[in-house]
Amino acid sequence: MAMSINADDCTACGACESECPSKAIRFKGAVYMIDPKKCTECQGAADAPQCDEVCPSGAISKAA
Fold first, then answer.
1. Where are the domains of the chain?
2. What is the DSSP track for 14-60?
3. CATH, range 3-62
């Protein structure tokens, strides 16, 4: 499973990109996107997905 960014809620602040230990987050178009092939949900690096922890707009959640 991977994390996902809701484009409607993303403010493009960039907080998530710098926190991602897997380098799975990149800016594309007007919002940030998470590459599901690279996303590990921070397993082995943190207790919880760091992108979700730092997102000020609550735009990040587990992908369905």
1. 3-62
2. -HHHHH-TT--EEEETTEEEE-TTT--TTTTT-SS-HHHHH-TT--E
3. 3.30.70.20
**pTM higher than the cut 0.85:** yes
Asked if 51 and 22 count as a contact pair (C-beta separation under 8 A), the reply is no
pLDDT along the chain (64 residues), means of 10: 94 97 95 96 96 98 90
